[in-house]
Amino acid sequence: MTTEIWKDVGALCDVPRQGARIVETSFGRIAVFKTANDDIYAIEDKCPHLGGPLSQGIVHGAHVTCPLHNMVIELKSGRAVAPDEGCVLTLPVRIDERRILLDFSKFGEKAA
Length: 112
Ligand code: FES
What we know:
4-stranded antiparallel β-sheet, mainly beta, 112 residues, Rieske Iron-sulfur Protein, binds FE2/S2 (inorganic) cluster, 10 strands, 40% strand
């Protein structure tokens, strides 16, 4: 069983609605998105197509469209919407007293 590694990455109010905030980590950039419904998702800030910055994409519903070539990524699963293929890493999110916590356990012991 993997141990969860929750880290505080900022305040809920720091992420604009239908926008994103970047979290720099030793594993690369993580994009934390807030939808129009105030749902929060965290995914790698690296499009599965050619590495475009998804944090600069357009958020619509629970999806983001890559700013480079318009691939659409489902924020919850990190999967590209058909007909495109590919996926990005997603991180579990928890909100605690209006702070955003991400579980970095997918990165293994190095994240501890
Ligand atoms: S880099 Fe994202 S669609 Fe091409």
